[in-house]
Amino acid sequence: MTQGQPEHIPDPTQRELLHVVVLAGGVGGAKAAAGLYQILPPQALTVIVNTGDDFELLGLPISPDLDTIMYTLAGINHPEQGWGLAGDTFQALEMIGRYGGPTWFRLGDKDLATHIMRRYLRDQGHSLTAITEQLAQALGIQARILPMSDDPVCTVVDTPEGRLPFQEYFVRQRQQPRVLAVHFEGIDRARPTPAVMEALARADAIVFAPSNPYLSLDPILALPGVREAIRSRRERVVAISPIVGGKALKGPAAKMMREFGESPSPLVVARRYADLLAAFVLDEQDTAYRDAIAALGLRVHVTDTIMKTPADRARVARAALAALGWEVVDEHA
Ligand code: FO1
Q1: With respect to CATH, is domain 15-322 assigned 3.40.50.10680?
Q2: How many angstroms separate the CA atoms of 236 and 239, rounded?
Q3: Which residue CA neighbors atom 19 of ligand 1 most closely?
Q4: In angstroms, rounded to a whole number, what is the distance separating the alpha carbons of residues 35 and 198?
Q5: Beta carbon of 67 within 6 Å of any ligand 1 atom
Q6: Closest by alpha carbon to 71, among 109, 21, 26, 120?
Q7: Which of 27, 30, 253, 281 is geometrically suited to a Cys-Cys bond with 212, CB 3.0 to 4.6 A?
Q8: For a pocket test of ligand 1, which of 56, 71, 81, 105 has the largest count of ligand atoms closer than 8 A to its C-beta?
């Protein structure tokens, strides 16, 4: 058995069938997906990715969360930033700036190639699902990365200054404006792809990554039929808390909870998804919430959920599966 392959899963016949689906946004989602990718046979993993953050810039279709997941599973992501590529340069962006073009969204030279290819393939009529598969395969990724939909969905936030497109709020205004409400424009006409629905229907485990509930997981869950598909497999569904010690692991989730009148805690997340979940992975700093989350009918698994190293990611991935009763032991661990 090679390193990173599972040594023991409860029933050997299930090992053949093991299929783990992760619902993910950007950086937090990528870390959780990478942990599962490390400890499972690579083809066992499917990542369903939020595309509400997608937008067009300079005529190019940008899918930030898909790219963050793709670069991370390929091992070529920027290690500190989380998004973008390791060692990328910004010469094209500098030139765009000289022409007076937009430079607030930091598109690296190598990253630009991804968006140019996506434009090229879209203009040839390929779906986002097919394009993502082609790019991911070219980068040697054996897991499936699935956009939540091939239809456009645009996350927008209402702020005291008016409605902002997602990246205007998130990147250009650095998540400073107060969020009054979040909307997913186009969600009524959008459908989850058949690949997404099939992956959910045959999943042995469904993992909610520690992504922003309002901005990353809710768009996926808002697609018609997705909540119902997940609820029907509730016994196999676990969420990893994105809130640790009252703070978001990354991004504005805790700030948004306060703006929505809640005190930031894992309990807010557990309550939000209680009807979809069997289990919840709680950080060891937050054991005070264990009983309240268990009272929602969820099995609570406590571990250190901070993911800085590959070993951390593997530990959190194991914890998520253990919370559902799966044991995956790396023979070299
Ligand atoms: N996030 C930033 O905070 N600043 C950027 O300039 C930026 C550029 C960028 C370029 C390509 C890409 O795929 C992602 C990029 N991100 C950037 C991250 C991204 O916009 C957000 O983290 C996600 O949309 C939220 O999940």
Answers
A1: yes
A2: 10
A3: 64
A4: 23
A5: yes
A6: 26
A7: 253
A8: 105
Is the Cβ atom of 55 under 6 angstroms away from ligand 1?
A: no
In this structure, what token pair is assigned to residue 69? 């997941």
Give the total residue count for the chain. 333
Q: What pLDDT tens digit does each residue of the chain (333 aa) get?
A: 233 444 444 444 445 558 999 999 999 999 999 999 999 999 999 999 999 999 999 999 999 999 999 999 999 999 999 999 999 999 999 999 999 999 999 999 999 999 999 999 999 999 999 999 999 999 999 999 999 999 999 999 999 999 999 999 999 999 999 999 999 999 999 999 999 999 999 999 999 999 999 999 999 999 999 999 999 999 999 999 999 999 998 899 999 999 999 999 999 999 999 999 999 999 999 999 999 999 999 999 999 999 999 999 999 999 999 999 998 866 444
Give the residue from 199, 187, 198, 114 showing the smallest Cα distance to 149: 187
SS3 category, 314: helix
> What is the C-alpha to C-alpha distance for residues 63 and 51, in angstroms, rounded to an integer?
7
Ligand 1 close to Cβ of residue 25 (< 6 A): yes
Domain regions of the chain by residue span: 15-322
Residues 84 and 60: their CA atoms lie apart, in Å, by 16
Work out which ligand 1 atom sits closest to the CA atom of 211.
Answer: 26
* CB 41, CB 6: distance < 8 Å: yes
User: Which residue, 170, 164, 285, is CA-closest to 216?
Assistant: 170
C-beta of residue 47 within 8 angstroms of C-beta of residue 207? no
320 residue type, one letter: A
60 lines ligand 1 (CB under 6 A): no
Two structure tokens written together for 257 = 């909870």
Distances, alpha carbon 263 to alpha carbons 231, 258, 259, 271, in Å = 27, 6, 9, 13
Distance, CA of 310 to CA of 303 (rounded, Å): 15
In angstroms, the Cα distances linking 218 to 25, 92, 118, 210, 215 are: 10, 34, 25, 12, 6
Q: Distance between CA atoms of 1 and 233, rounded to whole angstroms?
A: 31
